[in-house]
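Worked Example 4.2. Read the sequence first, then its structure tokens.
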Amino acid sequence: MQTLHIVTPAHTTTPSTCIGLIRLVLQHIGGSHHVIVIGNESDVSDLRAMGLPVLGFVDGPLDTSRTLARRLQELIQQVTNDGVTQRIIAWGWHPASVASAISWDTSVIAIVDEIDASCSITAGELRIIPTSWTGSECLRARGIPDDSMTEPLIGVNPVTMVVDRSAVQEQLQLFHSDVTVGIVGRLGSWQEIIAMAVRLRAANAQADFIIFPRYEYRVQLMFAAKQQGLSDILHEIPSTMRPIDVVKVVDGIWVPSVMAYDVSCSVLDVVSIAWEGVPLAVPTNHPIAGVPTVGKHIAWARDEIEVCRWLLDLARDTRTSMNETTDITTRIRSIASPSRFIEGLQMRM
């Protein structure tokens, strides 16, 4: 069977774990597989370097000309055998929204982790696989009927870790920190991050915050940090470095609460971090709280004061939360393993 994968790697709704899951499907689901990229030549080069069989790309993901769906359909007809394929998988909200505007003669599956109000989906023949129950609720709120959705599915494709800790610290300029914290979540409250930095400074704790890629409020955060004299504690991951490499050198990962006027249903990035066995602080209202058996243990932070206390404990002794972290890692690996993901995906096809 021929499977065509459509992905927009640079879009904010495409999680960093997405490419790993595509590789997982290529390795474990039979038949021929090809990838179409919505993006530019740089995106294509990066994916090919990761071993993905990219057939071609369509530029202009913002679709200002309103021709993206037509151009995608024309490309598929050009690069596939007479435009015929037996299965199409759209990886993420953006490619799903584009695919939903095309009339297909085959089944189309969309794996959706995060939702973006700027691009809409017309359900039609699209079969959507969310990654959380919160995602299912968001889809219903956007008019997607229940019969166009499946039960949620999560997964992780483990990567080989070859990290020189000192090299990562040097690139990020981490030299005299009591506690190094990775900030994950594209819509986390920048006010909450600044407030946490101020609390830690008042407690005489030297903290460094590493902002993960695709954070939406970077400009506001950097401006506020400059006003508070905190610019030196904020660090961004350079394009030459994998976020997963940073995960291995931080003392803990914090997922700030989402801004009151935003809605987020993304869980895959948090799942992948929990898989790595890193101490993790996630608010109780995060969508991952609904993951069976382990969600409530991951999403335990009731407020910023509790997170601040946790970070101060990490600054004093990084072994503080390792026993609980090991338990969470064991549980998440049992429900997000590659074999469970592939089995679950096949059941939903």
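Now turn to a second chain, presented in exactly the same format:
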Amino acid sequence: YLYRIEHQVTERTLLCFSFGAICFLIGYFVFGYFFKQKIPINKKERNKNNEILLLYKIIIFLGIIVNCIEFYKNGISGPFGNNFLRNVRWNSLYSGRKNFLGTYSTVFLHVTTCILLQYGKTEKRWKQKFFVLLLLFSTIFSMARSTMLQYIISIVYICYFSKEKRGIQKKYFNIKQLLSGNIKIICLFLVVFFAFSAVALVTNKLGGGSILDKEFYLYKYLGYPIVAFDINVMAFPRISKGYYSLGPIGKVLGIFGVYHVSEFSSLGVAGPTQFNVYSYLAAPYKDFGIIGIIVISLFLGFISGMFYWFSIRKKGEWTVFYSVYIYGILMAFYSYQFAMTYYFYIAAILILYRCVKIKKNRIVLLQSIK
């Protein structure tokens, strides 16, 4: 609405966005209607794998030390002089300096925090709060708003949504609990908004001069992707034949020459001074055109429905995984986040936590996945 005067979006683009939303919802409801009852409800809490959690905590605290050192180095060296935090952001994006332990320890921190929250009343509150604060604190190492949002989404889902269902439909609603939960979510939203704005201000990405300006970053990200898609992406259907939709698998295939990335990587991309966010539709559209949007949106809706109902009915590691995966759904307006390598890391760490048990005699036992 804010940008329709400067650019009139074509009917073809509007159809793409309409088909994408409708097909995603169809896929989601198809799984919920036909398949969710086949997932057995897990009513018994699993025992925590304390030995593996201890290993994760060691990795986390070693990583925190490394990240603090790198944070200081990045802040004092960069093209922005005394702007410490903006130097940190620039180095995280462009310097190419990546510390293996520091980078991947935050993935262990994310998983460990979600596991501790998932156990609710059986876990000590101070430990839960400590790891939540540590997780949020870790976002300063990259000054990335997307990372902050990803962590907050996980925390909110586990604390305020998944715990109220547990796979069994309630027969009544507690109005007091409902209002209390909504107030907490509203307060959290305001805190997140101000935190986001503070980071945007420090990194010079606030956009407009005030919240009333149509160039303000929040309006731009929520409202302009459809315009950017129409201007930059619409003219380039079927140029990548599945490369973008496959995520990390597509990149690996590109390395082996299955895809000639140089032939299409510069097509449908905004210029250096243009807005470069096109929503998740850019990937399936560049791969397969409108047919790709329809088919891939159906598939993504179906998979998202599957993960959701497994998280509600099976709980445990499924809830932790979905709390991370839901980020891709909520960021659909921004870009294609459904096939991030990050999800594979999360899954691997959860499989290790679920399947490997270290006993006192140091024998490692493999447990079955159910």
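Notes for the reader: Confidence is low (pLDDT under 50) at residues 165-173. The first strand starts at residue 356 and ends at 358.
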